[in-house]
Amino acid sequence: MSRAEFETAAQALVTVLGSSRTKDLVGVLARGRGVEHALLTVQDPGADEAIRALYAAVDRHRIPYREAAAYLRGFIAGRASQYDIPDVRTVWSGPGTPGVPVRSTARVLAEVVGGAERELLAMTYAARSYAPLSTALRAAVARGVDVHVVVETKAGAAGLLGGREPAAAFRDVPGIRLWHWDLEQRANDRARQHAKLAVADRRVLWLGSSNLTESGVRKNLEAGVLVRGGTAPARAAEHIKELQRRGVLRPLQT
């Protein structure tokens, strides 16, 4: 096996942890500390496998820890420069107008989900089963994408959401991890989980007013943006993962 194994493991680790938290691991490596100390420092169960894989590659190829740390620093710097210039485009649901080319929310959302290779994070207030989205999510899970969806709950909405629980929209997609904003973590009983977004592999971010419903992505008049590159996709993903790690967002038992 070649050192390409280490480089692949390093790339996977940065994708999972993001640049800022990978720097914590860099500090551990630079001090010559082992994998168990790294796991305690990072404290992210979702990253345990990637951390162990990196250390396994380092040990297998006898790469000095300081050299591995230097490589990770360089990789983070290169990754930052690669995405310095973002491509930002508007996205709309509802009626179009002649002469103004816009991307439809339904199509963009399908592209974001369909393009995810490792990680997909999404947030929505309301959700209803929408066959094209369910199909895209099932395909993502099938190809090994780690899919997390944060939804509001009827208890959290305090009577403002009718019908079934938003989480019910994803019951036909095995393998998705559902999360909610814990009621005990809210500043007051009027606070709502109202974010609507999807971020794929920390490289592409859709952010808009549309809920993950057919009305939201196709029928209503809704607006949003699609961001490729720059720091916004990674920072959005890192924020969500940190909220999960701190227990602000908690797994939803359905």
Describe this structure in words.
- With 254 residues, the protein is an alpha/beta fold.
- The chain has two domains: 4-82, no CATH class; 87-251, Endonuclease Chain A (Endonuclease, Chain A, 2-Layer Sandwich), CATH 3.30.870.10.
- It is 44% helix and 18% strand.
- It contains nine helices and nine strands.
- The chain has helices spanning 4-30, 35-42, 48-60, 65-82, 105-115, 131-142, 154-157, 214-219, 232-245, and strands at 87-93, 103-104, 119-124, 146-151, 177-181, 197-200, 204-208, 222-228, 249-251.
- The protein has a nine-stranded mixed β-sheet, sandwiched between helices.
- The radius of gyration is 20 Å and the shape is globular.
- The termini are far apart.
Write a concise keyword list for the protein shown above:
alpha/beta; 2 domains; 9-stranded mixed sheet; 9 strands
How do the strands and helices of this protein lay out in sequence?
Blueprint (H helix, E strand, L loop, with lengths): L3 H27 L4 H8 L5 H13 L4 H18 L4 E7 L9 E2 H11 L3 E6 L6 H12 L3 E6 L2 H4 L19 E5 L15 E4 L3 E5 L5 H6 L2 E7 L3 H14 L3 E3 L3
Parallel strand pairs: 1-2, 3-4, 4-5
Antiparallel strand pairs: 1-8, 3-6, 5-9, 6-7, 7-8
